[in-house]
Amino acid sequence: MVAHSDRRPADLAEPAGRAEPAGLADLADLLAGPVLPAARGLLGCRLTAGGVTVRITEVEAYAGTAGDPASHAHRGRTPRNAVMFGPAGHAYVYFTYGMHWCVNVVTGPAGEAAAVLLRAGEVVDGLAVARARRPAVRRDVDLARGPARLCAALGIDRSAYGTHLLGDGPVRLRPGDAPVSADAVAAGPRVGVTGAHDVPWRFWIAGDPTVSAYRRHVPRTRR
DNA sequence: TCCACGATACTG
DNA sequence: AGTATCGTGGAC
After folding, report:
1. Is the predicted pLDDT of residue A121 greater than 90, yes or no?
2. What is its EC number (predicted)?
3. CATH code of A90's domain
């Protein structure tokens, strides 16, 4: 397997041994920087909304306009992706497949439109609320195991679009209690992505049971 | 493993 | 108008 891409812009190259965010200011700095370190640094952070808190266990990086065909911002600014073109630390929430909401954290400088999709988390607070939002789930590890499931468990929908996640709004992102060491992070191809399937921009906490199952993208066949 | 579900965004 | 989509749950 090829572990790099000629399409990867030089400014996305990962710095080695970056420290984990210790406080809110450090997290803000991390999000304002290149998307790949930001994605890894989001692992272990806490996302709180609707009375539920998850510890983020799986993310995917999207490079925005910088040559990433899988990014919603790849073809430029539209009403849907407008918040991606703003400053880092805001929520890009989108609706897909006719029924699901997914949430991204905008990263990098304004105009770059990079973002990190939050794909899965472990419910660490508000368990009863999360169970009530997802009554069909049998195992607690499945409550937020998948990007749309995560939003469902936290009650995130269109109303969260553009939220400043590091402020005191209805959706809050905070550093985790314990940093996630680089050794504990695994990387692989992004899920459900048609183009650029060769770049390992999906990151997860290795061995964590709340990480979603990998599915190769299969174009839907017309009936 | 496969398919229905289903709304929206973007393209032509 | 047509087509693709950063997915999930349930049926095989």
Report:
1. yes
2. 3.2.2.-
3. 3.10.300.10
